[in-house]
Amino acid sequence: MSTYNFDYLDELEAEAIHILREVAGQFEKPALLFSGGKDSITLVRLAEKAFRPGKFPFPLVHIDTGHNFEETITYRDKMVERIGEKLIIGSVQESIDQGKVVEQTGKNASRNALQTVTLLDTIAKHQFDACIGGARRDEEKARAKERIFSVRDEFGQWDPKRQRPELWNIYNGKIHKGENIRVFPISNWTELDVWNYIRREKIELPSIYFSHERDVITRNGQLMAASPFLNMDDEDVVFRKQVRFRTVGDMSCTAAVESEATLIDDIIAEISASKISERGARLDDKVSEAAMEDRKKGGYF
Amino acid sequence: MNILKFFTAGSVDDGKSTLIGRLLYDTDSILADQLEALQSSNRKNDDGTIDLAILTDGLRAEREQGITIDVAYKYFQTEKRKFIIADTPGHIQYTRNMVTGASTANLAIILIDARNSVVEQTIRHSYIVSLLGIKHVVVCINKMDMVDYSETVYNSIIEKYKVLAQQLKLEDVTYIPVSALKGDNVVQNSGNMEWYEGESLLHFLEQVDTDHLDRSQLARMPVQWVVRPQTDELHDYRGYAGRVLSGTFNLNDKVNVLPSGASSTIEKIEFFDEELDAAHAGESVIIHLKDDVDISRGDTIVNAAALPQESKLIEADLCWMDARALDTSIMYNIQHNSKVTKCKISEILHKVDINTLEKHAADEFKLNDIGRVIVKTADALAFDLYDDNRANGSAILVDSRTNLTVGALMFRAAVE
Ligand SMILES: Nc1nc2c(ncn2[C@@H]2O[C@H](COP(=O)(O)OP(=O)(O)O)[C@@H](O)[C@H]2O)c(=O)[nH]1
Ligand SMILES: [Mg+2]
């Protein structure tokens, strides 16, 4: 019998490809939620591995808060052009203009929570029955319990008490009208696994993941990029710092970390040694221990 | 470096969550902000040290009640392996969650409280391990600190467990005396139990050979998706995408496609931009066949020299997972890999009292019940016996009224 080298990244990859193909086989109108972050960029690579030389059986969907890092949008447009797949944009600004949501006020105002409404609207408008996302179980305790196929009602709500048992590698994608399923193909990956995979696959990332100099302020003990989207007042002192971002979200709530890491190898070394988990760099999770569970129940990704 | 998936089983308060917390803590897998949250939590051990169990008790209801009610997955790695842990609840009303956690595990850790020895729950959990066909079992005798690290206590417990292991045909059982709370023999070998000559739990987990990717002759690949670009330059391209469940497919192997029975030969195996000589268990690939056969999602490509069974009548073990009891008069959907068809449970052969392992006749199947049934399917399934090939010997039942997953099936025999 031939021997073969099937290491942990190969196994994670093969599992994710299997999940993506199950989505293709089981749903009428799936979509891949693309945030421009490294996890969704990894999903795009996995989709290429699952479906090429064919087309993706789903469009990419970007929920655009309007408070983006410019680098993310540049990256997104270049990538969409390279892969030649369809991109659908759901705009939070539009939801605000239509009066569906109200912009938050105050110092910690962010559009992060508003995204949920735009996402649900986009799902309803296009009648998506499955949305693929890049969430991982290692990110947070409530996520550690979420299934790979996770049912949402028409209000986007996740009910942790009514989760379907998920056995072996069999995924039950049956839903009622109005419901949809969130699918998390990289559930079993850790942050480090994602980085190791990106290195191995030589995947290009938006430049903000790497060390650069930028104007920042300190907010609730964390470094935030100074931007027009941040409600700043006289107490906020802007200074320049060598930083990078560990997640790519809304500019008003994604904290930077001080870093000299300019190469993937540096980042991997930094994370391996680092003692700040990735979600720690998001202000919105700090609110309470149950923060994530509440937001998930309310339809946040 | 490869992956080991394991799950933990024990009664409430035997220390499952603490043990997992200890593994994470002592392998430096807990990050600073999580640690900070732990330290500021008001749940503390009696001696004021941080309660490691909070690391896995994730949902608010669980934190409030201080118990585990759902499967929580945790990840850590050492230089030798990546570990995926399913922390499963021990209460009898959560048997289905344990079955869920066990279904993807290659190894089970069974916790026994040294003060209580083998109890009813130990029997139940061990039964689930044997039912789900988990090959490796580690019995951790926990809370050794509370029995003065006594070798006599330890020995009497393992003697008792050996009887159970034999009864359940558990072949590979390893015993380790630990204190999850103090850390003895979890990551480091303990100075408190010089009489124990075996390895620490982590060391054992790092080197246990799980051969979890089946290298048998039973080459099987359910087709999930047919790749047809239909572009000018790839006009005739037709590739069958799927994940090899078991065995190996080589170029030029003779294969059959089930259920049609059509035979062909493997012409090409692709993985993204590579062409491969072989596709092995666990790999997600695209296979091309020499002949133009009609294949769609739900079909299975198999080694022509080692065919699976095909039947519409299958004897299976069933674990019922829904609050609404089994109804033998209605049709359910059965999902076997990528294949979905209608089925009925045509007969209940027996139910198992999972606390005593006694079998008895039954005419109803309720939440968490386990027993032997006959499944009658609308289309024949191409399956292997669960003990020979877990991946192709298992299926789920879906209730078409609620769309919920209501049952887990392990195939034991084709009915003639
Ligand atoms: N003395 C002692 N107490 C332990 C040990 N392991 C766990 N405990 C305690 O037993 C209780 C239940 O532990 P927990 O991990 O929540 O049990 P679970 O219900 O199996 O998850 C907690 O108070 C733990 O601190 C041990 O090795 N020694
Ligand atoms: Mg627990």
TrEMBL record, chain A:
Gene3D superfamilies in the cross-refs: HUPs
Pfam families: PAPS_reduct
Keyword Acyltransferase annotated: no
Molecular-function annotations in GO: ATP binding; sulfate adenylyltransferase (ATP) activity
Keywords of the record: ATP-binding, Nucleotide-binding, Nucleotidyltransferase, Transferase
Enzyme Commission number(s): 2.7.7.4
Domain Phosphoadenosine phosphosulphate reductase: 30-255
InterPro entries in UniProt: PAPS_reduct_dom (IPR002500), Rossmann-like_a/b/a_fold (IPR014729), SO4_adenylTrfase_ssu (IPR011784), Sulfate_adenylyltrnsfr_sub2 (IPR050128)
Family under the similarity heading: Belongs to the PAPS reductase family. CysD subfamily.
Name assigned to this protein: Sulfate adenylyltransferase subunit 2
Organism field: Pedobacter kyungheensis
Automatic annotation (TrEMBL), chain B:
EC number per UniProt: 2.7.7.4
InterPro entries in alphabetical order: CysN_GTP-bd (IPR041757), CysN_II (IPR044138), CysN_NoDQ_III (IPR044139), EFTu-like_2 (IPR004161), G_TR_CS (IPR031157), GTP-eEF1A_C (IPR054696), P-loop_NTPase (IPR027417), Small_GTP-bd (IPR005225)
Record Pfam families: GTP-eEF1A_C, GTP_EFTU, GTP_EFTU_D2
Top-rank lineage group of the source organism: Bacteria
GO molecular function, one term: GTPase activity
Coiled coil (residue ranges): none
GO biological process: sulfur compound metabolic process
Occurrences of domain Tr-type G (ranges): 1-218
Top EC category: transferase
Record's keyword terms, sorted: ATP-binding, GTP-binding, Nucleotide-binding, Nucleotidyltransferase, Transferase
Listed NCBIfam families: CysN, small_GTP
Name under which the protein is recorded: sulfate adenylyltransferase
Organism: Pedobacter kyungheensis
